[in-house]
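Homework help thread (please don't just give me the answer)

Our assignment gives two proteins as sequence + structure token strings and asks us to describe the second one. The first is just a warm-up. Here they are:
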Amino acid sequence: MKSLEIFSGAGGLAKGLELAGFQHSAFVEFNKHACASLRENFDAEKVFFGDIKDFDLDGLGDVDVAAGGPPCQPFSLGGKHKADQDSRDMFPYAIRAIERLTPKAFVFENVKGLLRSSFADYFEYIILRLTYPGFIARPGADWKEHLSDLRSIGQLPYAGTKYNVSFKLINAANYGVPQTRERVVIVGTRTDLGVHWSFPAETHSEDRLLWEMFVSGEYWKRHKVSKSERAPIAEALQEQIIRLKGKYGMFEPEQLPWRTVRDALQGIPDPQSQHGIEDHIFHDGARTYPGHTGSDIDWPAKTIKAGGHGVPGGENMIRYRDGSVRYFTVCEAKRIQTFPDSFVIKGAWGEAMRQIGNAVPVLLGETIGRELAGRLGARGGSVNTGRAYRARL
């Protein structure tokens, strides 16, 4: 199946979909450094460097899945919270791509801030526009007037493309990503396909990690960490451990443990050693301050951040048992975001970290992609292609 990657960034979601079996038709990306990364890791001829407004959607042919991460700054908890008033809001262009291409499905990812109560109406507008992408606003109507019409669409004539749209706030750690990263994932499937979508079951849990740390001790044994070097049970966790033992008794939680920074970086040498790894370069100057204490080596990393004013040190540092900290290298940050070690991120350290921080974790993209491919594939032999579907409209 073919996919179009819009707002591709460095290609985290694209790589995940590729691993799930999708073939890329094109990549659309506005940042030149991210485009350089895309060209390094995918078919360079398929990378469009420029504004999505200038990309020729009609020249693509059939596309089964449209995917990407529309810029999140308008909705970011750390941003200016301007939503539809922000010129960086690219959801209207994502919707245009769906309207024009009528793919079998789409996958979009965005920040948790999209679900803020202050954005409730605009988020509803996004979901309804994705549900009825061919329902165009009346001349002169603003988005709020268009939303009012969309809410009443059952009483209005509409014979265009329709999608079943679902969204979920996902913590990537629950799918095996060594990072507590909460993001909203929106998935739509074309209604004529009769595809029932549900998000993949979670595979990893905090309960299992705590069990292996403080009940069975398997986590420390696996990493050959002596008892004197192990993390003590913090006072805040003591009651939680007691509840765990009461809940599970002698049987450990069924899911796999959350993956930690130590898990992710296993096998990577100290960046200050002689190692020959091109993107594993030590950067000095890491410091802690209130609210920025780094990512504990024996816990999933904090969310790797891109940052509006460079890379914020707290989220992108590793903190050891003795309290010392240092910055993640690009190689390590790729591991945290589940990129393959062979994946090349172009640009200097700060720029590379920005791209990695903006990316969808590859493993999360692959997990969603496999679920989507399986559900579409089950119906794929008996449905019309997007081109034939558009011809009927």
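The one we have to describe:
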Amino acid sequence: MKKAPVILTITGSDSMGGSGVQADIKTISLLGGYPVSAITSITMQNTLGIQEFYDLPAAIVAGQIEAIIDDLEPQVFKIGMVRNPEVLETIVFSLKHYKPVHTVYTPVVVSSRGDILMSDDMVAKVRKHLLPECSLVTVKRDAASFMLGHPVETVEDGVKAAEELIGKGCGAVLIQGFATPTATLTDVLLRKGEHEPAYFASPSATDFNVHGAGSNLSSAIAAYLGQGLDIRDAIVCAKTFINQQVAYACDLKGRSSELYNQLINEISAHHKTNNDVRFYADSLNVSSRYLAQVTKRIAGKAPKTLIDEYLIKAIEIQLSTTGKTVQEVAYEFGFRSQAHFAKFFKKMKGVTPSEYRKQNVNIKS
């Protein structure tokens, strides 16, 4: 029975499983490889994006890599998220010392939602120290722009960018995601010593933007390199595999829209008695942090802003359409005193409740 090629992935953990070590393990396994891993960072993320990172200490990353190399001797490395200079130094040392047959690097510079995930200083260190150790760098067009410090927009830009990256020392560069007049995307491959690039088409711009698409492609390339294919053939096979997977996949959707509507309903029911974000988060059985992410994503506002805006509109109706005194309105909406009420109202509207009432004469007798 043929032995499965051992592929070492060195990258971050994605709690959603769409990219990172979880996705690498799945892809490599599906293609008949034996995935082993060294985790560099732990992310806290969901369908709204990455909220926080915990970068593992360099000594822990080094220990993971050494344990795998000493025992299983992987001949193909796939490298993804590297955010810490000391961790980068550890990885480069391992590559120089062990010299795997292939090292595929996919810089995790920009998230699928446009968040910058690597500092300028780290990008400079990667260019100088990591790229020369890589047999193939696969990078999205926008990430290539960050890596090189200038826009990479057209296919022609992609060829020049690939030449520039090869000039940093890597053996080959695949830059992904150039739009064409048809409903396809074009990827550009250039190998050291070759003057003519190769071009690959992807079926749809939508497929390319799915969370983890670039990472999954590089994992598939690493798996095919482990089977003995050369770089170009590995890319062809990997792209075919990924395109087939996309046909069956659906991008994971969270509950944010539903939760936002539930929040508005809760505010409608409780705005007279509660203006605390924690109360609404608890009633919806979510964290205050997640609730804030949802309202920012959908409305561009914090939950407290939504609560206060709903409250002030309800107060305005009372002041302009009823004969209740300002004090009665204050107590009806849960304010501890008329002064407290007046301070809140002036902050929101720029005038006192009495001044607002004079400006909006529609009071029922």
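TA reply:
I won't write it for you, but here's a hint about the kind of observation we're looking for: Residues 204-208 have pLDDT under 50 and may be disordered.
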